[in-house]
Amino acid sequence: MRPVSYTANNRLTLLHCGAEFFPELERACDNAVSEIYLETYIFADDETAHRIEQALIRAAKRHVRVYVITDWTGSGHRNSKRLKARFLAGGVKHRSFNPWFRRGVARTHRKMCVVDRKLAFLGGLNINDDLISDDDSAMPLPAPRWDFGVRISGPLVSFIHDEITTQWARLGKLDLKSRLDRMRKLRTTHVEDVSAPAFAALVVRDNLRNRRTIQRSYLHALGHARETAWLANPYFAPGRKMRDALCRAAERGVDVTLLLGVGQFKIQDAVARSFYPKLLKHGVKIYEYQKTQLHGKVAVVDDEWSTVGSSNYDGFSLFVNQEANIVVKDKDFALALRDHIRHGVNDAVRIHAEEFRNTPWHKRAWYGTAFLIYRAMLRVITMGRYT
Predict the structure, then answer these.
(1) 207 falls in which pLDDT band (50, 70, 90)?
(2) Which residues have C-beta within 8 Å of that of residue 89, sequence separation ≥ 6?
(3) Were both Cys, which of 75, 204, 325, 376 would link to 70 (CB 3.0–4.6 Å)?
(4) Catalytic residue among 111, 161, 329, 340
């Protein structure tokens, strides 16, 4: 695992939901003058996605070099084919990540964009309408999907650019020497004055250099927490180390608040609830968000350390898929994100230990069974790394 590479003097703008994120992304594409790289898990076939698609094509027609990576599973085979054809006609270069599972089960779950090597976007938002469910049901949502992105300018952009251009190269024809050269470049660390504002780092997860980088970032933050830890995530099924870190922080007197998305996948909800008894016993506060689809993968510790990105707290994100988060050590940014999480908690339902103990036996049995099924599947996929 490479060390986390922090840079200072970045300019970071927190973007909440698609209403803030997509206009910024579209504007950046329309102002591009040389190149755009975009990588996403889902590039949907809806009105929002068409807006971004047309912005990319407009850029290409201005002779901007435009490169788009979409995940074959996340975007779907048929949609990927249609998207590729439209991009080809519009002058945009497109590559699918791991079609037909030719490189195993790993997916690119990252959501990143770099424009002119000067501006970057990173977070949890796919290229899809945030009023439509992102599963196969395509059901309308009662409120915009709860999610976050970050608009970034400054030294950190070069690190994001290196990651996304290397991903593009990997998906093409790249000889062994070129691959090794790119890997060596990505190992380079860069640390600036920690007292400067917007001290931030890109942390990624892959199956080559950074198998546990994102998880260790969370473990380090929780291990050094003194007062508060606010965490929000839609798919809660972390390994034992992450669960234990939450419990130990709460035992030390840290006010640990866990905001979880529920209601999208029944088996996922059951797996998450199988962990509730231990977490509640150790003092972790758990809230279930049911207002709309919670998709944000964010956390704030001690109002100083924060993270926004694509990584869920589940076995796929922590042990299988390719992910990308930004980690920020900046009080103003942390407070802004904390306030959003706090508002989410206010709209959520708290799970109390006494009430949860009164859950009917058949439901508790289902929760345990769901976890055993999930753990067995992940142990096979991760070759025993998930516990």
Answers:
(1) confident
(2) none
(3) 75
(4) 111
The single residue of 295, 314, 329, 340 carrying the catalytic annotation is 295
With a pLDDT cut of 70, the percent of the chain lying above it is 93
Give the model's pLDDT for residue 193. 46
Verify that 177 and 219 share a domain, yes or no: no
Q: How many domains does the chain have?
A: 2
What pLDDT does 383 receive?
83
Is-catalytic flag, 109?
A: yes
Tokens at residue 74, please?
């996340």
On the question of pLDDT at 342 being above 90, the answer is yes
Where is 248: in which H helix or E strand?
helix 240-251
- 30, 45, 46, 116: the catalytic one is 116
Average pLDDT estimate for 325-337:
97
Establish if 319 belongs to a structural domain.
yes
**Catalytic option among 130, 147, 206, 302:** 302
Active-site entry in 109, 161, 285, 329? 109
Q: Is 111 a catalytic residue?
A: yes
Tokens of 227: 């007062």
Q: What is the CATH classification number for the domain harbouring 293?
A: 3.30.870.10
Host domain of residue 223: 201-381
Which of 123, 151, 185 is the endpoint of a domain? 185
The CA–CA distances, whole Å, from 221 to 97, 122, 210, 302 equal 31, 20, 18, 9
pTM > 0.85: yes
Please indicate whether residue 156 or residue 183 has the higher confidence score (pLDDT): 156
- 282 shares a domain with 145: no
Residue 9 confidence (pLDDT): 94
Specify whether 180 is located in the same domain as 205. no
* Selected catalytic residue, list 297, 314, 329, 330: 297
Tell whether 21 and 151 lie within a shared domain: yes
d(CA 70, CA 63): 22
